Each structure stands twice: as structure tokens, then as C-alpha cells.
Amino acid sequence: MSQDCIFCKILRGDIPASLLYEDSDVIAFKDISPEAPTHILVIPRKHISGPAALTEEDKDLMGKLVKVGVDLAKEFGLSDGYRLVMNDGKRAGQTVFHLHMHLLGGRTMTWPPG
Ligand code: 5GP
Ligand code: ZN
After folding, report:
1. For residue range 14-29, what is the model confidence (pLDDT) as tens digits?
2. Which residues form the domain of 31?
3. Pocket test for ligand 1, best of 35, 40, 41 (most atoms within 8 A of CB)
4. Rounded to the nearest whole angstrom, what is the distance from the C-alpha of residue 57 to the centroid of ligand 1?
5. Residue 32 lies in a domain
6. pTM recorded for the entire structure
């Protein structure tokens, strides 16, 4: 846990979030500023600053994170397509330095992302 990290604050219950899923390793909640009709963030309970900070021991955790995203996509009826995204670093648009995977769906996505 990191004292100043906004997602650690959500994990501690210090700030509210619309929780959609939780287990012992991972939680998922609605993005506060949605970029698509469905915009969910899936995060590990463990504070990891981003994809580049992952270690060997996080491999199972990351598999679980992706599976939770896929299951939520199914639950939210996104069978016609959705996107799972992780940003690493400021230049890629990362603004919160607690690893998270975006699940975006409910509209047509363009490629490449901007
Ligand atoms: P990033 O830009 O780092 O890939 O994604 C961070 C995401 O976290 C953004 O989409 C932003 O809207 C979301 N976010 C930032 N602060 C909060 C918050 O306090 N609550 C929730 N639910 N989402 C947040
Ligand atoms: Zn954190």
C-alpha cells in the first residue's frame, strides 16, 4: 500500500468507488471519467506502479487481472468487442501510478489509439 496513491485509497475505502468485483488479489470499479459507455478499471490489491514494475512473482496475478477483465466484459454484454488497455509511463497517458487495466466497450473503437 502506498499512502498517497489514489487507488490504494480506494482499496482502503478512504475514497468511494463503484465497486463491480473483488477478490483476495484484484478489484474492479467504474472509471470516474468514462471514455466509453462501459469503462471499468481492474487493479491488483498489491501496489505496483505500472507494467514496467512487474516482476516474475506477479505473473499469476496479471493472468488473473486479465481474466477478471474478460469475465466482466461478458457480464456487461460486450460480446461484440471491447478493449483491454494498460498505459505505462506519462507519454503513454498513464496518470495513476498504481497498475490498472482499462476495460472499454459499448462503442466502436478506432485503431491506432491516439
Ligand atoms: P491512466 O490514465 O493512468 O491509464 O488511467 C487512470 C484512470 O483512472 C483514468 O481513466 C481516470 O479517469 C481514472 N481515475 C482517476 N482518479 C480516479 C478516482 O478517484 N476514481 C475512479 N473511479 N477513477 C479514477
Ligand atoms: Zn497504489
Report:
1. 999 999 999 999 999 9
2. 6-105
3. 41
4. 26
5. yes
6. 0.98
